[in-house]
Amino acid sequence: MTDKNTIEAELAPLAAGRATARFDEGRASIVLDVTGLSNEVREELEGDIRRVVGALPGVAEVRVLMTSERRTRRLVAVASGKGGVGKSTVSANLAIALSRAGRKVGMVDADIYGPSQPRLLGVEGVRPKAREKTLIPVETKFGVPLLSMGGLIAPDQAIAWRGPMAGGALGQLVDGDWGACELLVLDLPPGTGDVQLTMIQKHKPAGAVIVSTPQDLALIDARRAIDLFAKANIPIIGLVENMAGYACPHCGEVSDPFGRGGAEAAAAELGIPFLGRIPLELAIREASDAGEPPAAGNGPGAASFAEIAGKVDGWLKQNGG
Ligand SMILES: Nc1ncnc2c1ncn2[C@@H]1O[C@H](COP(=O)(O)OP(=O)(O)OP(=O)(O)O)[C@@H](O)[C@H]1O
After folding, report:
1. Which CATH fold topology does 4-67 show?
2. Which of 63, 70, 71, 93 is most buried per CB count within 10 Å?
3. ipTM exceeding 0.90?
């Protein structure tokens, strides 16, 4: 005779772990968890369930109730083992390129030592408003809203900050009113100390992008950054090599004062993906200083960042949406 258990046993191969059943006087009620499934898959699954359960003896009616957990916003951390390698520049351009690729992206500037996103995204001096106690991100003309630690602290305070304080302050930014943003790019403070570790342990990014320059020393620092994420059990999305080769502003020729291919080889050795290289280019610095990140334009810089963003986007799709 059909009962709850026989129905669930029939559903197991169709909707492993997602369906629970009740059976009462000929009526089968199925609760189906559809978290993370596309509409197409949901409809198909519902049809299959109705067909299979409806064919069981004694079942006169099948009800399917779909439930879905609210999907929490995901963070992608951008980190570097030391300062000055272009982590903030890469973060801003990555966020813009991801947004151009169709994602709803926000930017969280957690770099307490030198919050540079307001300048990079052209909203220097604009303070975020708050509703109740929730911060409302500042809109930028690139479609990437921003919340920055710069608005919360005086620059000379940061040096004395410890992990728990920084982790708490970051919470205010991450829990801002991000509206439709499904992804937040997190520009971490440079380095691999207590402040960075607490931030990532507390706010658990989905993955991390490591930025390095081609010099050996910076790559040693990149290794430290990779270890930091390993400690917190956060997967590495890949390595971006910044300031790779010097692009002559006159003839466009790229020369490699630090050699070529070091970061790519290091990524291979460390077993992490290589996401791409950005040349050291006067135009990148000038555009960045002027609040016009190259990823928003149509030049070669935009293409390089689009390629890196494409790889990050692919990684995110493979790892949960
Ligand atoms: N590929 C590049 N070509 C030319 N200039 C660059 C490039 N990348 C970054 N810069 C410049 O280098 C300087 C440092 O970059 P940025 O602030 O992004 O580094 P950072 O690693 O975030 O530094 P910090 O440790 O201060 O946070 C900036 O003036 C920036 O415009």
Report:
1. GMP Synthetase; Chain A, domain 3 (3.30.300)
2. 93
3. yes
